[in-house]
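re: the backbone from monday

yeah here it is again, tokenized this time
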């Protein structure tokens, strides 16, 4: 009986690792590929996409210049399990902002996909006690206060 509880606990931790690492890699590669292919061209493409919205072009351009860096940093933190709480909350806010933009453009397909990302971030935050295989656990053990 105790062995099955131990296996279940390890499986929860492994499942958490795999989900956390997958979304972290996804977001990290989103940002890194945009940086490598040129942040300015990405920002310019966003300005074109948001032409018919009430957002001023300069704000979309600024957001487009910052977005790849935010994605890369948050993605890396989530992937590595470093400052996990901060990164998951940051990722949730990031998805909230992206959802605002998608719905403003009436891009319901992207908004629907962003709900999946939001759900994953919420689940990872809710089950952060399963974040056993991470740099946070390695550096801080079970001390939640140091992970804030």
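seq for it, each position gets an aa:
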């Amino acid at each position: 009986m105790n062995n099955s509880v131990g296996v279940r606990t390890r499986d929860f931790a492994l499942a958490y690792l795999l989900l956390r690492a997958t979304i972290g890699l996804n977001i990290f590669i989103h940002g890194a590929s945009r940086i490598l292919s040129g942040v300015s061209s990405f920002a310019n493409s966003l300005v074109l996409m948001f032409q018919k919205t009430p957002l001023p072009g300069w704000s979309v351009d600024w957001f487009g210049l910052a977005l790849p860096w935010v994605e890369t940093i948050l993605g890396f933190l989530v992937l590595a399990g470093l400052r996990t709480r901060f990164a998951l909350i940051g990722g949730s806010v990031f998805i909230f902002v992206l959802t605002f933009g998608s719905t403003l453009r009436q891009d319901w397909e992207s908004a629907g996909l962003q709900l999946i990302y939001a759900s994953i971030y919420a689940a990872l935050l809710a089950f952060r006690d399963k974040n056993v295989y991470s740099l946070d656990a390695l550096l801080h053990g079970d001390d939640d206060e140091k992970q804030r």
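The CA atoms of residues 96 and 118 lie 8 Å apart. The two ends are 35 Å apart (CA to CA).
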